[in-house]
Amino acid sequence: MYWAADAEHGGWVQSVPFVLQMVSVPNVGNPTGGQLPQSYGMQSAEPRLSYPSDTIVLAAGQYREIRPMVHPGLLAAGGCRFHVEPAELPAGLQLDPLTGIIWGAPAPQTESGVDAKYQHFNVHLEGPLGGASTQIALKVVNFQPQDFQVSHVSQLDNNKYMVIVETSKPKK
Hints:
There is one protein chain. The chain is mainly β and 172 residues long. Helix content is 2%, strand content 44%. The strands form five sheets. It has a four-stranded mixed sheet, with no helix packed on it. Strands 5-9-8 form a three-stranded antiparallel sheet, with no helix packed on it. Strands 1-2 form a two-stranded antiparallel ribbon. A hairpin with a 2-residue loop joins β10 (119-127) and β11 (130-141). Residues 1-7, 15-23 and 25-45 have low confidence and may be disordered.
């Protein structure tokens, strides 16, 4: 514990304790040329931008929001923008350029639900304190009754259930 200095005598006063705390201070001017200052505590091993999963399955026609997890250091100065490459998400889905949320009700794909393929995307975040990117794969499944069968249902909690759905190749 440190003791405050007695301004009148230039010495240390033993009766008035204070605590010295080291805190990170944001460098809003960003003299690092796009790199985040170490004061943000962003180590290279930490994901700066990610989604709940790298592979996401969406049901055609069902509204969904997929929220990104962004390191607070990237958002500290504001003015951040998100974009996706390729720019065309599956029909019915959009990327909010201010929040990074992928949202909408995806349209049914031309392929059957069982045979649908993952589409790969790069989501980028750019802002005054630097940028980050992540890769995600989206698959839109068009549930058809003949392609799927519920094999198990368990109640986990009040109004919360686990449902196991088995797929089968459509018969030709």
